[in-house]
Design a protein that fits this description.
Length: about 270
């Protein structure tokens, strides 16, 4: 059985490359688009539950527009779902990503002007010029210090994850405004140029099975949960216990999860 999260088909329409593999009324090549909102929920169905989120500048392929909703597949991880059609714009060519935990986009290169929007770490923008301490984009101005070129990935996923410390927990969240355990891992790895799927069960096949003591950058998995190892004793994770991104001792988290009836560590991976 195909995974609906990764299969661009909804019965009415399906991606052309799925012809002969799934049933659909129409098979289409799809239409390139880019997220034009700071952050948008990717839903399991129109007006349905949030599966994940997409950030400004991320590319998607639209397979159907219907009733104000777009049936899409995200380029970053292949996740399929529904986005509000109003949140989408034409395809773009981003040059930079937000490397700070969050930033603001202004109508002028002046921090005293009223911001147009807030952007999360991982959002993508197209820099067209510079104005003092600001980078100019088609949408406005962003502090240059908060941006990094897309072609220059970071080296340490844990250091990226630490920028989210204190960010509120949000089921299915992918931004500094709300994030869950798999969203944190994906954001940290993506900033380092490491492809990463969106959900914990998918992430459990990342990299190689690790042997021996955990080391920085490893992933530890429990039933429905994932965390990044900071060192031999501590980890960083977005968790519902604290409803935030926190650093904790590996032993304490393992004991707490076991006490809640969720069992032991299920996998130890090295991306």
């Amino acid at each position: 059985m195909s995974d609906r999260r990764l299969t661009p088909a909804n019965g009415r329409v399906a991606a052309a490359h799925l012809r002969g593999q799934v049933a659909a009324e129409r098979f289409v090549a799809g239409e390139a688009a880019t997220l034009a909102a700071p952050v948008a929920d990717l839903l399991a169905a129109p007006c349905g539950a949030r599966d994940r989120q997409c950030l400004l500048g991320e590319a998607v392929t639209i397979y159907e527009r219907r009733g104000g909703w777009a049936f899409v597949q995200a380029a970053k991880d292949g996740y399929v779902g529904y986005l509000a059609e109003a949140a989408l714009g034409p395809p773009g060519a981003p040059t930079h990503r937000v490397a700070a935990r969050a930033t603001h986009l202004y109508p002028a290169p002046d921090m005293k002007t009223r911001e147009r929007m807030s952007l999360s770490l991982g959002a993508r923008v197209t820099v067209t010029g510079e104005a003092g301490r600001f980078a100019e984009t088609p949408l406005g101005f962003v502090p240059r210090v908060h941006l990094a070129p897309l072609e220059r990935p970071e080296a340490d996923p844990v250091a990226v994850a630490e920028r989210f410390l204190g960010a509120p927990y949000l089921w299915g969240g992918n931004s500094a405004f709300g994030i869950d355990c798999s969203g944190l891992v994906q954001a940290a790895l993506a900033a380092c140029g490491i492809a990463c799927p969106g959900d914990t069960d998918m992430q459990e096949s990342l990299g190689d099975a690790a042997q021996g003591p955990p080391r920085r950058g490893d992933l530890l998995f429990w039933k429905g949960h994932v965390a990044l190892v900071r060192d031999a004793e501590t980890l960083i994770h977005a968790n519902a216990h604290h409803m935030a991104v926190t650093v904790e001792e590996i032993a304490a988290v393992t004991d707490r999860i076991a006490a809640a009836g969720e069992g032991p560590v299920t996998a130890h991976r090295r991306p």
